[in-house]
Design a protein that fits this description.
Number of strands: 0
Largest sheet: none
Structural class: mainly alpha
Oligomer: single chain
Keywords: Membrane, Transmembrane, Transmembrane helix
Shape: globular
Mean pLDDT: 86
Helix content: over 70%
Distance between the termini: 8 Å
C-alpha cells in the first residue's frame, strides 16, 4: 500500500507544482506523506543503507553523521517555511528525504523520527487507501 500512496502523493505534487493558489500546507503535507511512504518501501530502506554507506566515508560513526545531516535538513526545512510561509523546493526535497535519513540515523532523534515516519505512513495509508479504493 505504501507504493500506491507514495506514487499518488508524488503525482499530486507534480500536478500542484505550478498552481500558485494552493496553500503551502497542502504541498508540504504531500511531500511529507510521499517521503514517509517512500521510507516504508524497499527503495526507502535501500536509500537509507546507501546514505549510511556514504556517511561511512567520514571518520566518525556513520549513524551519528546521518543523524547530524537529518538535524541540519530539519533546520533547513523549518527555516525555509518560516521565512516566507511557502513550501519552496528546498523544503519539499527536505520533507521527502528526511524520513529516509531517520531510518539510517542513530540516537533519540532518529528513533523519534522513525516512529513519526511510521505513524504518518500508516495514517496516510489508512486515509488515502480508503479514498482510492485500497
Amino acid at each position: 500500500m505504501s507504493w500506491i500512496i507514495m506514487l499518488t502523493a508524488f503525482a499530486l505534487m507534480w500536478v500542484l507544482r505550478k498552481r500558485h493558489k494552493t496553500p503551502w500546507q497542502v504541498k508540504a503535507g504531500l511531500a511529507l506523506i510521499a517521503g514517509c511512504s517512500l521510507a516504508n518501501t524497499g527503495i526507502g530502506v535501500w536509500l537509507a543503507h546507501r546514505a549510511a554507506d556514504i556517511a561511512g566515508l567520514v571518520p566518525a560513526p556513520a549513524g551519528a553523521v546521518v543523524s547530524a545531516v537529518a538535524l541540519v535538513v530539519t533546520v533547513i526545512v523549518i527555516y525555509d517555511i518560516a521565512v516566507d510561509r511557502k513550501a519552496d523546493k528546498a523544503a519539499k526535497i527536505g520533507l521527502v528525504v528526511l524520513p529516509v535519513l531517520f531510518l539510517a540515523g542513530i540516537g533519540p532523534f532518529a528513533t523519534a523520527g522513525a516512529g513519526l515516519t511510521d505513524a504518518i505512513a500508516q495514517v496516510s495509508a489508512n486515509s488515502f487507501g480508503k479514498l482510492i479504493g485500497g
